[in-house]
Description:
The protein is of the alpha/beta class and 171 residues long. The chain has a single domain (6-165), classed as Rossmann fold (3-Layer(aba) Sandwich), CATH 3.40.50.360. Helix content is 38%, strand content 23%. The protein has helices spanning 17-31, 66-74, 76-79, 95-98, 105-113, 133-140, 150-165, and strands at residues 6-12, 35-40, 52-60, 63-64, 84-89, 118-122, 125-126, 145-146. The strands form two sheets. Strands 1, 2, 3, 4, 5 and 6 form a six-stranded mixed sheet that branches. Helix 1 (17-31) packs across helix 7. The longest helix is centred in the C-terminal third of the chain and has 16 residues, at 150-165.
Amino acid sequence: MAAAQRVLVTYGSKHGSTAGIAQWIGDALRAREIDVVVLPASGIVDLEPYDAVVIGGGLYSGRWQRDAARFARRNRKALDRRPVWLFSSGPLDDSASEKEIPPPKSVARIAERVHAREHMTFGGRLAEDSDGFLTRRLVAEGRGGDFRDRERIRAWGEHIAAEVNHTGQPG
Length: 171
């Protein structure tokens, strides 16, 4: 029997929404008997133990949260030697559940540099108690709420699991 594949799900998150999505993806992979580690991008030192990587970043003004972007940039060569999937968290409405949203240009460049197999955009979450001038303003404008589609996130995690499990090796 082949050894279980080990997948890293890592993320950059300011307010916890993207971290939650990363956990849900990790749960979907675990349900398919894949060895998964879910960690913030700022805490990863070595990619050697992982057979595949999923990277997520919260979107702020069309750019990934800085820890996710730095992780991808800093580990570009190591990421090139394993399958990589990317996701973004951001729209504060149901648009990400209604249609496929392409990545912003800055994230598309990251996807190209790390040879990502796929990018997915999920709705974000803006809690009423979020701090910061801009977030308080968005909440005041009625744009707060949780727009993450847990079922869609789970299904995407299962899609990744199917690819990882296809031949006993990613890819």
